[in-house]
Every structure is written in structure tokens, then in C-alpha cells.
Amino acid sequence: MKKIFLFFFIPFLFSFQVNPDKIHIYIAGDSTAQTYDTTKTLQRGWGQFLSLYFNDKVEVINKAKAGRSTKSFQDEGRWAEIVSNIRKGDWVIIQFGHNDTSDKPERHASPEDFKNNLIKFITDVRQKKANPILLTPVVMRTFKDGTLVDDRLKQYPGITREVAKEYNVPLIDVNQKTRDLILKLGDEKSKSLYMWLEPGVDPSKPDGAKDDTHSLEAGAMQIAKFVSGGIKDLKLRGLCKYVK
């Protein structure tokens, strides 16, 4: 006799513990924001440092995951997990773009789909009486003949800015802030913020790396500072007063 296995969707699998007495900031994003195992790699995401810039009244729940786009973050149930847990007054930081430009079908979101996905995220958060914040994607340290071009992100940062304006959502222009920083530092000095490594330095990159997308600790902490500073500059009621 063949055994038949039945699988049921169980909502509580998407729940997780948060401190009910704190203000919650959820992060939906990709590898540039993800939390990394510090015992296995030197790569860091800004999301794992954001809590350092707030006092103990705030709890950061970082759900960012490498390789995810506005499409795959939904398809894998990651967005549903956030929505099912947010409560009135919470904050959700949304930052995508790097993987939406990918030609991999499981990741790719056309400019039109990217915009619609951002609008859906905003709508879902507001329906829970919570607060969305849009971030443009981190600049890619792409130099050609001494000039920072960053042409790989295409029009996606611009779309994020447009959606923020159209739907009256707070925007922190991380793309512009990181661009300005990289331009100030220049080609060589800016490598110290990214995963530019000699062989044998990082166990996850035994042959070294010349990565213009992902951050070392110094870069990730600077981006986290941009994000917290942006929250303070925007004077976001109910959140900015907790920024250190």
C-alpha cells in the first residue's frame, strides 16, 4: 500500500518572537542588508548594525535575504511573514533593486512589476496601520576610467524615488548617499568599504574577492548610519526620537 503524505500550510510557522514592549523596525531587503554569521565571513549587511543607532526602546527584526528581489521575496513567503507579524505603529523598511535587474526568471522584476510590487508592499503595511519607509539600493562601486558609473542598477533607484513621492512614503536615498561617499573617497580608498579581499583573508572567499556590491563591516555600519540619520532628518514621528 502506498503511503500518502498530506502537507498543510500552518500559519504559526511564519511567526517569531518579538518584544511587545518595544517599537519594531522590520527590514525587507537583499544581501546588502542581510545579517551574516560573523564567524564564517567578513561580509556584513547594514541591517545587522541598525540597532546600534537606536536606544533600547527599539527592536530591529532583520528579514533581508541574499539574492531576493521584490518578486522572489514575495514568492518565497518572506513578505507574507512580515505582514503577518507587524502590528499597528510598527515600521517596515523596504529596500530592493539589485536582484530585480537580474536576468534570472525567479528574481527578475521588470520596471513596471518592480513599481507595482513596491506599491503592494506599501499598501500591505498601511492596511496593518504600520509605517513603510522606502530605501533606494546601495550604490555599486563601478568605476570606469576613474569615473563612478553604477550602470547596473538601471532605472530602479529612480522608480523607488517616484513611488515614494507618488504615495507619500518617507524615502531615504541610500543610493545617493553611498554614491556621494564613494565619489568622495575615490576608486582605491572606497575599496576598504566593500568586499575587496586578498586570498586567505576570509574563509568564505579563500581566493580573495573583488566585490563592488557587498560590504565589509566599515561599509555596512556607514550605511546603517545613513539609514538612522535619514530617519532622524525626516523627523519620523514616533521613531526619530529614539535615534542615538
Automatic annotation (TrEMBL):
Gene Ontology molecular function, alphabetical: hydrolase activity, acting on ester bonds
SUPFAM superfamilies from the UniProt entry: SGNH hydrolase
Keywords assigned: Hydrolase
A Pfam family that the UniProt record links to this protein: Lipase_GDSL_2
UniProt keyword Hydrolase present: yes
SGNH hydrolase-type esterase domain span: 29-180
Domain of life: Bacteria
Gene3D superfamilies assigned: SGNH hydrolase (3.40.50.1110)
Record-stated family: Belongs to the 'GDSL' lipolytic enzyme family.
Protein name per UniProt: Lysophospholipase L1
Species in which this protein is naturally found: Bacteroides luti
